[in-house]
């Protein structure tokens, strides 16, 4: 078996070979390399046609109108454009925004930037299962609330928020609802005809497309307007200037087409593998699943192994590519803010591992992973003073630790 | 994070992992760190009547650098008198293991563990 085993599909996915093949047709002299904005010749027309096909493919996956899709450089840019663009455009209506503490940094930091511009932001606590309580969200709404941003699928723990219900609430109050759906495409059914969502962010590389490409859904009925964040040639109906990256756009379109076609079969296959993994590690003592056990995508499994430390665990798991928290924060020594928001103790937050399974994961890889996890936990617990104390019946909460 | 070969060696083949009986009068125990900070080290020294460290064992909850720092310390203290062991500096540990700046606290913790064990010994032996 080829090692290390890739189990970090939530960080990024490999480009599907069918997608890569498409992408390469839009680069060289032999291909359709033209600028889609060139109106005066065939090179431009061909590229424009390819972009429009891709736009339709993306719209189809989420049951939207192609005219509602704006291409960006990725979900981070989409989140920034949606949140800042809407907050700024509608600032005369109010300057209060709401999001949750477990959102991606691209949402949280965009909110922080708006705070520096004079907006007020409520960062909602989530429940211990990672889900937003609708009543608490409703209670946080003020007369001057203009934008609410809640993610579809959490990148660290995989829980699925009740986007339909939150959408109804927002619509009834006349509040713009943005959803970061980077981890949701190809994983859950998304129907923007029924969901009362006004803005939705998508990523290419989380769904077997290339990095550096994303999209933002901007609802037409009722029409949502945005303050542009990137100014220039007025591309994408003025919302996002910059020459369209034809090859990446075509690739994202193809990736989303495949996602639509294969999503249900893939979800079932991934769920079988996930169950196999959970079954294989369930006899290890003191293992906890983070996030709601039911309302979750099968691809992301976040577990805490009590009394072992996360970074040493990652080292012990060197033959499997997993992450501790999200890739964006794993360089720091802080435990995951998402797990902290669920109310996990520091120990449990420090010893969490995210296994994310995807299109190319095999049964053999899962079986090998189970073996590696057993060995690693055994070794590290033999070395852990906390495990020893737990086994001796010492209440770790009663110990007077010396913080450093 | 890229670890030095020495850290990886100590992590993969930790020296002197284990525990001595706590109530043995020749055993001194130092436990430092906090789970909230992501590392806890327990260092135990077996000290003879002449004040020489005959043996050492450790258990560490922490990152690879923390495990390597404590593993290294158990090797270094053996054969030393408690006064000599007290002179081991975190900078020596950090240098030996080529710890990156963000991991210096692991070496500090290892030095603290030696000091805590020695303090435990002195307290128990009335000095």
From TrEMBL, chain A:
<comment type="similarity">
    <text>Belongs to the class-V pyridoxal-phosphate-dependent aminotransferase family. NifS/IscS subfamily.</text>
</comment>
<comment type="pathway">
    <text>Cofactor biosynthesis; iron-sulfur cluster biosynthesis.</text>
</comment>
<dbReference type="GO" id="GO:0031071">
    <property type="term" value="F:cysteine desulfurase activity"/>
</dbReference>
<comment type="function">
    <text>Master enzyme that delivers sulfur to a number of partners involved in Fe-S cluster assembly, tRNA modification or cofactor biosynthesis. Catalyzes the removal of elemental sulfur atoms from cysteine to produce alanine. Functions as a sulfur delivery protein for Fe-S cluster synthesis onto IscU, an Fe-S scaffold assembly protein, as well as other S acceptor proteins.</text>
</comment>
<feature type="active site" description="Cysteine persulfide intermediate">
    <location>
        <position position="328"/>
    </location>
</feature>
<dbReference type="GO" id="GO:1990221">
    <property type="term" value="C:L-cysteine desulfurase complex"/>
</dbReference>
<keyword id="KW-0411">Iron-sulfur</keyword>
<feature type="binding site">
    <location>
        <position position="183"/>
    </location>
    <ligand>
        <name>pyridoxal 5'-phosphate</name>
    </ligand>
</feature>
<feature type="domain" description="Aminotransferase class V">
    <location>
        <begin position="5"/>
        <end position="367"/>
    </location>
</feature>
<keyword id="KW-0408">Iron</keyword>
<dbReference type="InterPro" id="IPR015424">
    <property type="entry name" value="PyrdxlP-dep_Trfase"/>
</dbReference>
<keyword id="KW-0808">Transferase</keyword>
<dbReference type="GO" id="GO:0030170">
    <property type="term" value="F:pyridoxal phosphate binding"/>
</dbReference>
<feature type="binding site">
    <location>
        <begin position="75"/>
        <end position="76"/>
    </location>
    <ligand>
        <name>pyridoxal 5'-phosphate</name>
    </ligand>
</feature>
<dbReference type="GO" id="GO:0044571">
    <property type="term" value="P:[2Fe-2S] cluster assembly"/>
</dbReference>
<keyword id="KW-0963">Cytoplasm</keyword>
<dbReference type="GO" id="GO:0051537">
    <property type="term" value="F:2 iron, 2 sulfur cluster binding"/>
</dbReference>
<feature type="binding site" description="via persulfide group">
    <location>
        <position position="328"/>
    </location>
    <ligand>
        <name>[2Fe-2S] cluster</name>
    </ligand>
</feature>
<feature type="modified residue" description="N6-(pyridoxal phosphate)lysine">
    <location>
        <position position="206"/>
    </location>
</feature>
<keyword id="KW-0001">2Fe-2S</keyword>
<dbReference type="InterPro" id="IPR010240">
    <property type="entry name" value="Cys_deSase_IscS"/>
</dbReference>
<protein>
    <recommendedName>
        <fullName>Cysteine desulfurase IscS</fullName>
        <ecNumber>2.8.1.7</ecNumber>
    </recommendedName>
</protein>
From TrEMBL, chain B:
<dbReference type="Pfam" id="PF01592">
    <property type="entry name" value="NifU_N"/>
</dbReference>
<feature type="domain" description="NIF system FeS cluster assembly NifU N-terminal">
    <location>
        <begin position="2"/>
        <end position="125"/>
    </location>
</feature>
<dbReference type="GO" id="GO:0051536">
    <property type="term" value="F:iron-sulfur cluster binding"/>
</dbReference>
<comment type="similarity">
    <text>Belongs to the NifU family.</text>
</comment>
<dbReference type="GO" id="GO:0005506">
    <property type="term" value="F:iron ion binding"/>
</dbReference>
<protein>
    <recommendedName>
        <fullName>Iron-sulfur cluster assembly scaffold protein IscU</fullName>
    </recommendedName>
</protein>
<dbReference type="InterPro" id="IPR002871">
    <property type="entry name" value="NIF_FeS_clus_asmbl_NifU_N"/>
</dbReference>
<dbReference type="InterPro" id="IPR011339">
    <property type="entry name" value="ISCU"/>
</dbReference>
<comment type="function">
    <text>A scaffold on which IscS assembles Fe-S clusters. It is likely that Fe-S cluster coordination is flexible as the role of this complex is to build and then hand off Fe-S clusters.</text>
</comment>
<dbReference type="GO" id="GO:0005737">
    <property type="term" value="C:cytoplasm"/>
</dbReference>
<dbReference type="GO" id="GO:0016226">
    <property type="term" value="P:iron-sulfur cluster assembly"/>
</dbReference>
């Amino acid at each position: 078996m080829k090692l290390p085993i890739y189990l970090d599909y939530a960080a990024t996915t490999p480009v599907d070979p069918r997608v890569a093949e498409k992408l390469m047709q839009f680069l060289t002299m032999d291909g359709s390399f033209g600028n889609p904005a060139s109106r005066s010749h065939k090179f431009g027309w061909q590229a424009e046609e390819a972009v429009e096909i891709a736009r339709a493919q993306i719209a189809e996956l989420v049951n939207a109108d192609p005219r509602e899709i704006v291409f960006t450089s990725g979900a981070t840019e989409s989140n920034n454009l949606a949140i800042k663009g809407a907050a700024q455009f509608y600032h005369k209506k109010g300057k209060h925004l709401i999001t949750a503490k477990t959102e991606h940094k691209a949402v949280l930091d965009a909110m922080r930037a708006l705070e520096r511009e004079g907006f007020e932001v409520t960062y909602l606590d989530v429940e211990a299962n990672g889900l937003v309580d609708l009543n608490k969200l409703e209670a946080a709404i003020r007369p001057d609330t203009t934008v609410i941003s809640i993610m579809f699928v959490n990148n660290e723990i995989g829980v699925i928020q009740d986007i339909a219900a939150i959408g109804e609430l927002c619509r009834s109050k006349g509040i713009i609802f943005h959803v970061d759906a980077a981890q949701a495409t190809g994983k859950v059914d998304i129907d923007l005809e029924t969901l009362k969502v006004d803005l939705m962010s998508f990523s290419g590389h989380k769904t077997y497309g290339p990095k550096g490409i994303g999209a933002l859904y901007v609802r037409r009925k009722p029409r949502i307007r945005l303050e542009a964040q990137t100014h220039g040639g007025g591309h994408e109906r003025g919302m996002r200037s910059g020459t369209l990256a034809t090859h990446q756009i075509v690739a994202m379109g193809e990736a989303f087409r495949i996602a639509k076609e294969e999503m249900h079969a893939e979800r079932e296959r991934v769920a079988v593998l996930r169950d196999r993994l959970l079954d294989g590690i369930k006899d290890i003592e003191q293992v906890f699943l983070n996030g709601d056990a039911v309302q979750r995508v099968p691809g992301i499994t976040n577990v805490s192994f009590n009394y072992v430390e996360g970074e040493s665990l990652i080292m012990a798991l060197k033959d499997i590519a997993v992450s501790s928290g999200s890739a964006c924060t794993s360089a720091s020594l802080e435990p995951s803010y998402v797990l902290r928001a669920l109310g996990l103790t520091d120990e449990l937050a420090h010893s969490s591992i995210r296994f994310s399974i995807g299109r190319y994961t095999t049964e053999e890889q899962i079986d090998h992973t189970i073996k590696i996890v057993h060995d690693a936990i055994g070794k590290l617990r033999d070395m852990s003073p906390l495990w020893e104390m737990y086994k001796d019946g010492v209440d770790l909460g009663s110990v007077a630790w010396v913080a450093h | 994070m890229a670890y030095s070969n020495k850290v990886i060696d100590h992590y993969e083949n930790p020296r002197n992992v284990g525990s001595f009986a706590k109530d043995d009068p020749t055993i001194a125990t130092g436990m430092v760190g906090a789970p909230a900070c992501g590392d806890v080290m327990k260092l135990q020294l077996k000290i003879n009547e002449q004040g020489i460290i005959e043996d050492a064992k450790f258990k560490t909850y922490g990152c690879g650098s923390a495990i390597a720092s404590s593993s290294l310390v158990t090797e270094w203290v053996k054969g030393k008198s408690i006064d000599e062991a007290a002179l081991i500096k975190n900078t020596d540990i950090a240098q030996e293991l080529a710890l990156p700046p963000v991991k210096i606290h692991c070496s500090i913790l290892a030095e603290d563990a030696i000091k805590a064990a020695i303090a435990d010994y002195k307290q128990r032996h009335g000095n």
